[in-house]
């Protein structure tokens, strides 16, 4: 992707998703994305839907082509602590990381107890209280329900079919 288009896309998605104006460094995006995969694999299996969610999300936020290729094959067996303590920014974005980790873990429709424990442990490492964790978890599931409601309302007449997949 052209670097100017990539930067524009990054600014747009970060503003839309987080009301945030500063683009993280490639190192920060790498650490963040690896942490998501490690959490999603906490139940012993990284489901295809979970990996696809992380790869798609990181591509959408402007992750480099090299990072996208790395994530397509990343085994998620690293020590998560290394990534959490890599940047002081992690403490500032810890709530976003928890929300995205829950999203990645639930991409296969199963936010397992092992995944929940891993995400919770990540939150503890980043000094997030149990109350804050539960609020973020509740917000995620409320948002998921609202998304379903929105899609059902907006496509009450069905989704359009195209002759050629886009």
Q: Could you describe the 3D structure shown?
A:
The longest helix has 25 residues, at 130-154. The two termini are 18 Å apart. This protein has helices at residues 3-18, 26-40, 48-60, 65-73, 80-84, 89-92, 94-105, 113-125, 130-154. The chain has 166 residues and is an all-alpha fold. It has one domain (3-154): TerB-like (Orthogonal Bundle), CATH 1.10.3680. Helix 2 packs across helix 7 (94-105) and helix 7 runs antiparallel to helix 8 (113-125). The chain contains nine helices and no strands.
Quick structural gist:
This protein has 166 residues and is mostly helical. The protein contains nine helices and no strands.
How are the SSEs placed, and which strands pair?
Layout: H1 3-18, H2 26-40, H3 48-60, H4 65-73, H5 80-84, H6 89-92, H7 94-105, H8 113-125, H9 130-154
Helix pairs in contact: 2-3, 2-7, 3-4, 7-8, 7-9
